[in-house]
Prior knowledge:
Number of strands: 12
Shape: elongated
Strand content: 5-15%
Structural class: alpha/beta
Mean pLDDT: 95
Number of helices: 15
Order of helices and strands: EEHEHEHEHHEHEHEHEHHEHEHEHHH
CATH topology of the largest domain: TIM Barrel
Amino acid sequence: MRTIKIFDTTLRDGEQSPGASLTTPKKIQIALQLEKLGVDVIEAGFPIASPDDFNAVSLIGQKIKKAAVCGLCRALDQDIDRAFDALKGAVKPRIHTFVGTSPLHLQYILHKTRQEVIQMATAAVKRARGYVKDVEFSAMDASRTDVKYLCEVIRAAIAAGATTINVPDTVGYAVPSEWGKFIKKIIALVPAFNKNIILSVHCHNDLGLSTANSLVAVEAGARQVECAINGLGERGGNASLEEVVMSLRTRKSYFDADTRINTREIYPASRMVSELSGIAVQRNKAIVGANAFAHESGIHQDGVLKKRETFEIMRAQDVGWPCNQIVLGKHSGRHALKTRLSHLGIKVEGKKLQKFYERFIKIADRKKEVTDADLKRIKY
């Protein structure tokens, strides 16, 4: 069974979400939780972006002992030098350098020819490799790049010393079927991926496909997935760490792959990132949303109370929730009501239960959720 590396970019790409700026103390707090979670790589920031970002990367590098700590930099000498300065105290430093490769990026952002971009990638990786052994190279906007040219850039980066090659769907343009074929073709055209070079993917969620694209990439041979807690990131966000990890864990036999993540730390990590970033998690968010393990439908409640697996493919406790939830509302049935009453020490049977249920429904029609206090006030 393959072990898929989890590269967490909550503190870099996640922090770039509008309104999600994090102070250095908050970043350190999250980084320590990410290490507890068991991620393989923590992308701590963009050292040249600001003195505060530099300081955060530096301090995180000093505090984190198990995970690799990564600093992002453009394919520019000053960026790479600044990243190394920030990572000097890290136990496992990684420099992550990138350059755009799509026709749009070459023409409108870089104003470079294809050959000039290959030269930029080569020079950047060589400079980074002169500082650290662990160098990642990303071909920005890879999903909109001609695959043969993309592989030229990749081969040049590997020859220059890159140990991980990241193939990003930077703008969330890919769809799963074509993305899987794209990744397979890259692996077929670059033999080094069948040896010791790691192929990574970084999928954005502009079309809501980031998790699906990450998973088909794993099927196609990717060995690292870049993602963020709660799916934070530019625009529609990044692939959600919790979705990728739990998909691999829950369907382990299908993917024949898993991660090193301690899944019981997922929900605590989600809560921490939400509270510190100020960005709420939607109620129906997979794995970590308030409704992820909550049941109001009478049919679902009856099934879960009889056998949890009838309507739950994961245990709430396995991702860090205290337990699942039976929410009493107008869709709830007698089984759920009777079970809750039993927990409250209220014994109601037969005709009395029917009368109680009718009064309960009247309250439920007026309220979104019937509380224990409401139940205790019902006369029967």
